[in-house]
Sequence to fold (62 residues):
Amino acid sequence: MAKIVGIITTDHGSVGGGSPIFYARDRDDLQKVAHLLEKVLDCAAHEVHEDLFIVVDRHNNR
Fold:
């Protein structure tokens, strides 16, 4: 089962929930943070829309 392990956004009012939320300054920062978290966490970053990425862990044994 996949699990959302992080949310990265430029819009402070658009997200909530139980996963860690990272706020980016702009679109460039958004992409940099998403791809850095993707590498560090060994997960996959997915662009939901231009202001929002989610980082998903698909490894079943964690």
Summary: The beta strands are 3-9, 21-23, 44-49, 52-57.
